[in-house]
Design a protein that fits this description.
- Strands 1, 9, 10, 11, 12, 13, 14, 15, 16, 17, 19, 20 and 22 form a 13-stranded mixed sheet that branches. A 4-stranded antiparallel sheet has the order 4-3-6-7. It has a 3-stranded mixed sheet with strand order 5-2-8.
- Helices cover about 5% and strands about 50% of the residues.
- The two termini are about 40 Å apart.
- The chain is built from 1 helix and 22 strands.
- The protein folds into 2 domains: about 80 residues, Sandwich (Immunoglobulin-like), CATH 2.60.40.1120; about 180 residues, Sandwich (Jelly Rolls), CATH 2.60.120.
- About 35% of the residues are buried.
- By secondary structure, the protein is mainly beta.
- A hairpin with a 7-residue loop joins strand 19 and strand 20.
Length: about 280
């Protein structure tokens, strides 16, 4: 087996000159419980981060952004926005931010056709060649994402499961949020999931992981993108060698999509693809 390691470096610029670091905590407006892994940032400025498991976040905002709008959002909740100058004033006080849950009047049930076909779409990875995409612990603070474009021929498909290949994992556990977007082979657009989908990856090497998502009732009427977003990545212990985590991949394909945080633009790496795939069903 030929193993090739390709290290993907997300370069995240943090403007520290004349910038202030803001710290806050995000809560459910009704239950008053902390909200894990919400996104906080400025749309169009490639500035963003996510809250940790306890809803706590840290973000640097330049004073030049006072007239911009900062947004706090998470699937399943109504987003809330502040003018940056107002956000700064509020942060000097309670430092608490609240999101309201979205209430759906009727559950959306998808009726599976009596006669249907199931197939696997996307990238399964190359059995003879493994391309490793390295993700570092610093990306867990920003909500970095890596994704694969899925081209489908049918007008409507039900997404039954999401899978990805893991080349190497030295960590006891890592938490990712699986995001599914409408989009093309250049960028993702709107999310087609209504609630966050989390997966905990346990320690192991050369494993293929499949997540059954039928209970989420997700359907799509065109091409889509599967993305894995880092939300909880263990910190590197001081004085110790960094542990490794990487996905499997393959050469060619539709290329790999990536972004450094939920508010930054997608970039495309055309020569390689990450091994994400889906099991879909459609009418026969």
């Amino acid at each position: 087996m030929k193993n090739i390691c390709l290290f993907i470096l997300f370069i995240i610029y943090n403007v520290t000159l004349f910038a202030q670091n803001y710290t806050g905590q995000i809560f459910n407006a009704e239950t008053k419980q902390p909200i894990s892994y919400a996104s906080i940032g400025i749309i169009g400025k490639s500035l963003g981060t996510i809250s940790d498991a306890n809803g706590v976040f840290h973000i640097n905002i330049d004073k030049k952004s006072n007239n911009d709008t900062i947004t706090i959002c998470l699937l399943g909740y109504k987003s809330t926005s502040y003018k940056c100058s107002d956000f700064a004033s509020k942060n000097e006080g309670s430092k608490k931010y609240f999101l309201e849950e979205v209430i759906y009047n009727l559950p959306e049930a998808i009726i599976r056709p009596k006669n249907y076909i199931s197939e696997t779409v996307g990238n399964l990875g190359d059995k003879n060649t493994s391309i490793s995409f390295e993700i570092t612990d610093t990306l867990g603070e920003t909500g970095a994402e890596v994704g694969t474009y899925i081209n489908i021929k049918q007008k409507l498909v039900l997404i039954d499961s999401i899978g990805f290949g893991i080349a190497e994992n030295d960590y006891d556990s890592i938490i990712f949020r699986i995001n599914i977007y409408k989009g093309d082979n250049k960028k993702a657009s709107e999310s087609i999931t209504k609630k966050p989908i989390y997966v905990t990856v346990k320690k192991g090497v050369n494993k293929d992981f499949n997540l059954d998502i039928r209970r989420y009732n997700i359907s799509v009427d065109g091409d889509f993108i599967i993305a894995a977003q880092v939300v909880d990545f263990p910190k590197k212990e001081k004085g110790k060698t960094a542990k490794k985590f990487s996905f499997k991949g393959r050469f060619l394909g539709h290329g790999m999509l990536l972004r450094g945080n939920p508010f930054s633009d997608w970039e495309k790496l055309p020569s390689v693809s990450v091994a994400f795939h889906a099991s879909v069903s459609y009418e026969k």
